[in-house]
Design a protein that fits this description.
By secondary structure, this protein is mostly beta strands. 0% of the residues lie in helices and 59% in strands. The chain contains no helices and eleven strands. Strands 2, 4, 5, 6, 9, 10 and 11 form a seven-stranded mixed β-sheet that branches.
Length: 119
């Protein structure tokens, strides 16, 4: 079974920066696309960014200038660097991964990490 554990969330002032991490763990698995989504209070979950194993990335256009996704294949970890944060970035940020394990394709979500942007 593949699990994702996010870290790095917290309280940050407007204009500040924060880096989220998400580590995948399991037995004999291969994570394909990994990414971040977020869900603000009262809103639907939305895509932030995704990254493939070869480093190809895709962002929600409105976030591309301030957010950067990266990945450490050896550590099965994906990162999200967020800068110039505003209160509108306040949300629970969820990590997601598509994987193959024991010949079975699957996908998994992390438990989420809260990011609050406030003075």
């Amino acid at each position: 079974q593949v699990h994702l554990v996010e870290s790095g969330g917290g309280l940050v002032q407007p204009g500040g920066a924060l880096t989220l991490s998400c580590k995948a763990s399991g037995t004999k698995f291969l994570a394909y696309e990994m990414g971040w989504h977020r869900q603000a209070p009262g809103k639907q979950r939305e895509l932030v960014a995704v990254i493939s194993r070869n480093g190809a990335t895709n962002y929600t256009d409105s976030l591309k200038a301030r957010f950067a996704i990266s990945r450490d294949l050896g550590a099965d970890t994906v990162y999200l660097r967020m800068s110039s944060l505003t209160p509108e970035d306040t949300a629970v940020y969820y990590c997601h991964a598509d994987f193959i394990e024991g010949g079975r394709l699957g996908d998994v979500w992390g438990q989420g990490t809260q990011v609050t942007v406030s003075s």
